[in-house]
């Protein structure tokens, strides 16, 4: 399977939401359609514990969601990385209590389409550092936060990327997808 990080970020590259620049209920129709297009290839949703708990506390309660996101999240095979969680409390969820990098390496060897990681900054940084990411999807919001954790981990050596998709949405958000260039620190050399 392909390992894909899909992340919402500010113009200055911040993914930690310290201000109110992102609201999952406030997406224009085009952007919601793009998100649903991407989830058509999603076989596994991989989350860190905090992001999982945020999702679990929000999405199952969205009973009148017309975008299809709530239903999709409820149905997808969810994996949560946690050393403390014992009962997920959300259907179709498996807890990964061991080494997340080994779990992702194993997922990568399985046949299928995409393992998508979103939010989960610590997990994303670990996967980036280990060179396990096959595709980066960035939804850039027109907001400058000036503080908070970045999309890429601090101190991580630069890696070349090649853009494979891009578009702009009427609400001001831009989207771009990138693949790591072979031989520059990624485990995969396509």
From TrEMBL:
InterPro entries: DHFR-like_dom_sf, RibDG_C, Riboflavin_Biosynth_HTPR. Gene3D superfamilies: Dihydrofolate Reductase, subunit A. It comes from the Bacteria. Signal peptide: none annotated. Residues 3-174 form the Bacterial bifunctional deaminase-reductase C-terminal domain. SUPFAM superfamilies: Dihydrofolate reductase-like. This is Dihydrofolate reductase family protein. It comes from Citricoccus parietis.
């Amino acid at each position: 399977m392909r390992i894909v990080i899909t992340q919402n970020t500010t113009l200055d590259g911040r993914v930690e939401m310290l201000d109110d620049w992102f609201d999952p209920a406030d997406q224009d129709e085009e952007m919601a359609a793009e998100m649903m297009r991407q989830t058509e290839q999603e076989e596994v949703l991989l989350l860190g514990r905090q992001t999982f708990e945020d999702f679990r506390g929000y999405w199952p309660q969205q009973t009148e969601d017309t975008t299809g996101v709530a239903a999709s999240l409820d149905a997808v095979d969810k994996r949560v990385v946690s050393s403390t969680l014992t009962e997920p409390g959300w259907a179709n969820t498996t807890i990964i209590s061991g080494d997340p990098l080994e779990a992702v390496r194993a997922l990568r060897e399985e046949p299928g389409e995409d393992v998508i990681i979103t939010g989960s900054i610590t997990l994303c940084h670990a996967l980036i550092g280990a060179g396990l990411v096959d595709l980066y999807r960035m939804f850039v919001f027109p907001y400058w936060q000036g503080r908070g954790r970045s999309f890429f981990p601090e101190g991580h050596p630069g890696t070349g990327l090649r853009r494979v998709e891009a578009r702009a949405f009427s609400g001001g958000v831009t989207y771009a997808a990138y693949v790591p260039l072979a031989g520059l620190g990624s485990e995969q050399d396509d």
